[in-house]
Amino acid sequence: QDTDEFILPTGANKTRGRFELAFFTIGGCCMTGAAFGALNGLRLGLKETQNMAWSKPRNVQILNMVTKQGALWANTLGSLALLYSAFGVIIEKTRGAEDDLNTIAAGTLTGMLYKSTGRV
């Protein structure tokens, strides 16, 4: 069988549009940022508390670093993904075309807006 076995509504595309993929992109970036931030927080927490004995204050300090860094990275990457997705959807709707130029423009605009805030 060379035919698809999926039932699609009449006139529906077989691929997802940019707007549908935006939710996956934003959620994926938030989860990736949280995981990366948690690992970074664990590394920083262990480094900062290396002179302390294993006790409740050390554990609490490490957990604080893990949650703080996890939230920071999740917010940062989630915000960037939101900007990228919003620019991509707006550009696609404005141009009326789905091509690589939309992706390049969305990435460029996101980077320009992110850097315009003065962050390094």
UniProtKB/TrEMBL annotation:
GO terms for molecular function: protein transmembrane transporter activity. The keyword Transmembrane applies. It is found in: Membrane. Keywords: Membrane, Transmembrane, Transmembrane helix. The keyword Membrane applies. Its main location: membrane. Coiled coil: none annotated. It comes from the Eukaryota. The chain crosses the membrane at residues 21-42, 72-91. InterPro entries: Tim23-like. It is a multi-pass membrane protein. One of its GO terms (cellular component) is TIM23 mitochondrial import inner membrane translocase complex. One of its GO terms (biological process) is protein import into mitochondrial matrix. This is TIM23 translocase. It comes from Heliornis fulica. The lineage of its organism: Eukaryota, Metazoa, Chordata, Craniata, Vertebrata.
